[in-house]
């Protein structure tokens, strides 16, 4: 659950020490700078107050009222509804200031009012299935950090123009699945064109260092939105990331929650050879080094040296 504020003025407002309450006025949450990256709301901008921070639980039946107070305890805004709140519906204000139930959530963006779709006479009513964003990508993974593997992480990046909730999205690999929960994150939202980090200490997903792995991002309907695969042995301290052309490369510069940077260390090739045939004087044997490889995928040049 969440409550969204909108600044209708043309100046930035600092919301520190402002308060939000529900019908139970004894439960008030005071906005603190320790709870948010910023407490300011820009001109004509938005500010999200999630239940995970406010601890305010909005009623699903019997009606509800939400009130906003400034730092001097003056009542600034108040809204109410009396109907039963249906799953996935939002109570949203239109441009004329009139409130409606809508099937479209628009956290951090202008409201889109899409009312329930009514069927023919005697058919009751229904609503369109909720649509989830599709331009969300797994952007970078860190499968083999230096030291403890507990420092592994998976980074998501949004290519959408608005913020949305990641609650109930799933991240899956060959060894397990994690469902994003509101209680696991202070801010379970992916900002427009922003990043979101899924650390192993939260997901408990163990990314494989040998034999390859496949990581999938799955929306709440079960649709696979993004997928990345890698194979072979993972060199310690390398990150696997997506470039601007949606191609994946290994890099020596991990960039959690930032734009990807591609650098290489020119690591030493891994030399490996086998000998086949009966080794006797003047006999012919085969020396095979074809399983040698370069950790960065470059082509190899083979040169043999024998001591007489």
TrEMBL record:
Pfam families: LTD
Species for this entry: Candidatus Kuenenbacteria bacterium CG10_big_fil_rev_8_21_14_0_10_36_11
InterPro entries membership: Ig-like_fold, Lamin_tail_dom
LTD domain span: 1-82, 133-231
Protein name, per record: LTD domain-containing protein
């Amino acid at each position: 659950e969440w409550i969204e504020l909108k600044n209708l003025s043309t100046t930035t407002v600092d919301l520190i020490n402002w308060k939000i309450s529900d019908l139970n006025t004894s439960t008030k949450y005071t906005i603190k700078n320790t709870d948010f990256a910023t407490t300011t709301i820009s001109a004509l901008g938005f500010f999200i107050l999630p239940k995970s921070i406010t601890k305010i639980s909005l009623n699903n039946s019997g009606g509800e009222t939400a009130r906003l107070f400034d730092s001097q305890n003056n009542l600034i805004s108040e809204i109410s509804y009396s109907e039963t709140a249906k799953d996935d519906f939002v109570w949203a204000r239109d441009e004329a200031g009139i409130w409606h139930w809508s099937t479209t959530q628009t956290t951090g963006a202008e409201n889109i009012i899409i009312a329930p779709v009514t069927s023919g006479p005697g058919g009751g009513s229904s609503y369109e299935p909720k649509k989830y964003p599709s331009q969300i990508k797994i952007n970078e993974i860190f499968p083999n950090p230096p030291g403890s593997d507990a420092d592994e992480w998976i980074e998501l990046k949004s290519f959408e123009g608005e913020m949305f909730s990641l609650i109930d999205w799933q991240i899956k690999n060959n060894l397990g699945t994690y469902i994003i929960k509101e209680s696991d994150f202070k801010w379970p939202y992916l900002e427009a064109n922003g990043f979101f980090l899924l650390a192993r200490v939260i997901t408990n997903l163990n990314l494989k260092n040998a034999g390859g792995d496949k990581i999938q991002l799955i929306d709440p309907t079960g649709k696979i939105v993004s997928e990345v695969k890698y194979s072979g042995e993972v060199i310690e301290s390398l990150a696997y990331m997506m470039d601007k052309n949606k191609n994946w490369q290994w890099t020596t510069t991990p960039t959690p929650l930032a734009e990807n940077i591609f650098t290489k260390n020119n690591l030493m090739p891994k030399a490996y050879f086998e000998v086949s045939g009966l080794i006797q004087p003047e006999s012919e044997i085969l020396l095979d080094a074809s399983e040698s490889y370069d950790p960065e995928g470059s082509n190899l040049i083979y040169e043999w040296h024998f001591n007489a």
